[in-house]
Amino acid sequence: MTVNTQPVTESPDDPRAFGLPLVDAHSLPAELRTLVSRVHDLVDAVANTEVDTDTLAETAATVEGLTDRLNVARRQIGAMVRRELGDGTTMVGTITNIVEGETNPAAPQLFLDRTDEGLRAEVTLNTIYQGPPGLVHGGWIAAMLDQAVGSVSAVETSPGLTANLEIDYRRPTPLFTPLEITSWVERVEGRKVFVAGRIRAHGQVTAEATALMIRVEADG
Ligand SMILES: CCCCCCCC(=O)SCCNC(=O)CCNC(=O)[C@H](O)C(C)(C)COP(=O)(O)OP(=O)(O)OC[C@H]1O[C@@H](n2cnc3c(N)ncnc32)[C@H](O)[C@@H]1OP(=O)(O)O
Question: Which residues belong to any copy of the Thioesterase domain (predicted)?
Answer without folding.
Answer: 134-205
